[in-house]
Amino acid sequence: MATKEKKKKKASRVVKGQELEVEHLTEIADVSPKQARALLRKHGADWTKLKDEAEDLKED
Q1: I need a labelling partner for 6 at 20 to 30 A (CA). Which of 12, 31, 41, 58 fits?
Q2: How far apart are CA 48 and CA 4, in angstroms?
Q3: Dihedral of the CA atoms 55, 58, 59, 60 (nearest 10)?
Q4: Dihedral (C-alpha) 16, 18, 21, 25: value to the nearest 10 degrees?
């Protein structure tokens, strides 16, 4: 049971190596780090989709 909880916590965070991707996305798309992390969790490394989604966030 403890491993399930541990997996949930890991899945809800961006992997340490992805922090550079978070920084990059915040710079190129002008979104907050929190928004960038959410986008990366949702779309992974699909940069085309990430940029499109980030543009949609800016319009709101």
Answers
A1: 31
A2: 32
A3: 130
A4: -90
Alpha-carbon span 43 to 35, nearest angstrom = 12
E strand or H helix at 51, and its extent? Answer: helix 47-59
Global pTM exceeds 0.70: no
- Label residues 6-38 b or e (16+ Cβ within 10 Å = b): eeeeeeeebeeebeebbeebbeebebeeebbbe
Nearest residue to 38 (alpha-carbon basis) of 28, 21, 27, 48 = 21
CA distance 32 to 6: 26
| Residue at token pair 């980030």 | 54
